[in-house]
Amino acid sequence: MAKAKGSPKTGGRTKGTLNKLTELIEAVTETFPNGEQGFWARAAEMAKNGESAAITIIASRLIPTLRPISQITNIKLGSNNLFQDAQREKGNGLKLE
């Protein structure tokens, strides 16, 4: 039998270790009587009492945060050389990526 080259795989999770999401679900299930429904009921109750963190959690769940959209930038092209025009505009404060 030929000897395997290289070292054995030693990285990664230990066998039987739970995924972080699984750990979170188990913690919610153990903490709240009705699991996820109990969590949301408690968050709603806290939001009604004015807890700003609970209000933020519920709001972000109902209306996800929108990513900003950059404004349209007009670049005046004065020559036939796009590179020179872009360099000129960059000197005027335009951020080119």
Radius of gyration: 27 Å
Q: For the report, how would you describe the main beta sheet?
A: none
Order of helices and strands: HHHH
Number of strands: 0
**Helical amount:** 40-55%
Q: What is the residue-averaged pLDDT?
A: 78
Gap from first CA to last CA: 56 Å
Structural class: mainly alpha
Task: Report strand %.
Answer: under 5%
What's the total helix number? 4
Q: Which spans of ≥5 residues are poorly predicted at pLDDT below 50? A: none
Shape: flat
How are the secondary structure elements laid out?
Layout: H1 20-31, H2 36-48, H3 52-62, H4 82-91
List key phrases describing it.
0% strand, mainly alpha, flat, 97 residues
Descriptive account of the structure:
This protein has helices spanning 20-31, 36-48, 52-62, 82-91. The chain has 97 residues and is mainly alpha-helical. The protein has a domain at 36-63. The N and C termini lie far apart (56 Å). α2 crosses α3 (52-62). The longest helix is centred in the middle third of the chain and has 13 residues, at 36-48.
What's a concise summary of this model?
This protein is mainly α and 97 residues long.
